[in-house]
């Protein structure tokens, strides 16, 4: 590879791709130099995923060219050749959960022993060697489904490198990781970079780009906009390139009126405990108040929220506007006036095959007609209102939600949460995996909706989400460890989330 | 904030919907998928006509020789379609087709004094329906409460019920029912406006099914549960109850189908319904019901039934030898599946 030293690892020029009437990519250009970590950013639907599909040989471009180290890309069917050039670690696992790590690493190329039969001992040794070579601290005998997200990503990277590729695409690798795991991942990436691995790093978290990337490429509206060293493109310019107008992003919630101490409570948690996850937690959300709940993945904050909305059994008492809510029943929580936005929209946020209108009205199916009837006219009217209110970019109320981009699908889930006109919203990771503009718009909805007298419980570890909150409580190991009014100190909050700043309580 | 200021307050007037062309196209497309089987049905009608031009396209032939023999299948397909849409399987339906009428008839005319038999003849219909429903309750119990795989639970039920039926009927056939039980007589021979009662029942059942699936909370929740049970649960749908009710309704529908079959034949054979489930799945899948749940329509399923019925009839007319007809039938079903897959695009994943 010495003679390729100066040549770009990958060079895509004028790549175009259409899906039926939709132009997914009009002018895709990307040059990644050897040894760098290159960021690829853009809003949902900017063409990033399509470009990745083309770069990995899974999509055939309608026009344009891809070159690896100066040579044309192999033919589309030749997967082995592609894998020697490039690999992609997706957000969704691409390992077989029931098989061991070792088998996953050598799937369909297992070392053989006597009589040409598969040799388990060689397989184990090869896997151990491979994992050690790239310092991945995982036992090759572990079933893949037991890996953490972090481990799974490292195993997939090691697998990619074992095929000979020294160029790895990471598609939002940090989306499901908590702060400490992200730090560890970045350390590992830096190590690998020193060993000569080139990365294309896709993320919606702009600070991460400044942390680990040397150059950044911005896509917008299916086109390449700019490529520059990160040092030459400050945060404002980067956002401008992504959203395409000079109007920067608004800090949502900076002008929220203060919530009076005597604000009447809309949601009261009285010694609410989730067996196996949290101890008894007391918490109150007042009228017009957004209460943020921060904490690591092990803090039990998500489980607490799921218990409040009736998805998990719990102890203690939950009251909405004074009246007690029956535990472990979602319908009861809905009737009491709790609107819920789940943590992972793909898992339990929406039904992909059903339409926007149907998903948005799923919580109010009883109000769409008499005697259990659902009148399509009424459903569509409500669907159209939700589309307008939440600015969902969709072909109409009949489009299946599975066809929408992440940000727009999340707006539909938000519409579902708001549909019953709830007294209090319980939102878990409301902006995970959505682009900057959708994030602004979703948080704007939470802000606007709570000004009218609703309350909101916003469970998140995104600082941007928490900044909208009037009050933030930090959970550590199943109990509330700290509480802050608006204007908290970022470093202090992060330290508390990590469980090292409890002295501030 | 200009983008978000307009958002949501209850007093904000809804913006007028922006007119777009695509939703209408989409709706048309959805309808088209339902009707994907109409061209092959027409082709078969034309082919049948060329085989027997004097009678094939007459009403009496189509009703009494083609459709009448598909009524039981149609009802079981309806039942299976509901279960498939909610994301489960029910193989035991074919055994219910046999055992529900067997039990009901046995209690009326059987050589037994169990449970105070003989029961009055009018009990045949309610007993069959309740028995079918009870099997649905039991299937639901195992699938919902004990979280067992629906496929394997209902497979075991299929075998167990088949055995139970053998024990009841005793390897023989309970026959000459029409003379002994008025309900059976009516089901088998009553005509309304010259069309057999069984066809009216199927039409009514599908009409009710279409309305329930398309225009009621319960019907829509079948699609939500089949499409993504976790999302349905988070939206307040009682997922377990929906699945359970679907099993019960499917059981009752299969029992009704069984009674209609007994009525048409005038008897309950020991192997009544045996092997039917394969045709049921074939018809449902050809008709666009997804085995993965959450997808498909009853109109589509009905066209699947009609298509299979026509195929069988046309094969007989084309003088395929009886010992070959099953092999040819299987092949034709495969071809129909491939064709349906191609004409309806991605809809049949």
TrEMBL record, chain A:
Record-level Gene Ontology MF annotations? ATP binding; ATP hydrolysis activity
What's one Pfam family the UniProt record gives for this protein? Answer: ABC_tran
Which terms are listed as keywords in the entry? ATP-binding, Nucleotide-binding, Repeat, Transport
- Domain (ABC transporter) ranges: 10-246, 261-502
- Cross-referenced PROSITE patterns, in alphabetical order? ABC_TRANSPORTER_1 (PS00211), ABC_TRANSPORTER_2 (PS50893)
Alphabetized Gene3D superfamilies for the sequence: P-loop containing nucleotide triphosphate hydrolases
Tell me the domain of life.
Bacteria
Q: Has the keyword Nucleotide-binding been applied to this entry?
A: yes
* Entries under PANTHER family matching the protein: CARBOHYDRATE TRANSPORT ATP-BINDING PROTEIN MG119-RELATED, GALACTOFURANOSE TRANSPORTER ATP-BINDING PROTEIN YTFR
- What is this protein's record name? Multidrug ABC transporter ATP-binding protein
From TrEMBL, chain B:
The regions listed as transmembrane in this protein's record are 32-49, 69-89, 96-117, 123-144, 151-172, 192-215, 242-261, 273-291, 298-318, 324-343
GO CC terms in record: plasma membrane
Is Flavoprotein set as a keyword in this record?
no
- Swiss-Prot/TrEMBL keywords: Cell inner membrane, Cell membrane, Membrane, Transmembrane, Transmembrane helix, Transport
Recorded GO terms, molecular function? transmembrane transporter activity
Q: Residues annotated as region Disordered?
A: 1-23
What is the top-level taxon of the source organism?
Bacteria
Stored InterPro entries: ABC_transp_permease
What span is annotated as the signal peptide, if there is one? none
Asked whether the UniProt record includes Transferase among its keywords, one would answer no
Its membrane topology is listed as: Multi-pass membrane protein
Q: Name one Pfam family in it.
A: BPD_transp_2
> Where are stretches of biased composition, namely Pro residues?
11-20
Location within or outside the cell:
Cell membrane
According to UniProt, the name of this protein is Autoinducer 2 import system permease protein LsrD
Q: What organism is recorded for this protein?
A: Micromonospora deserti
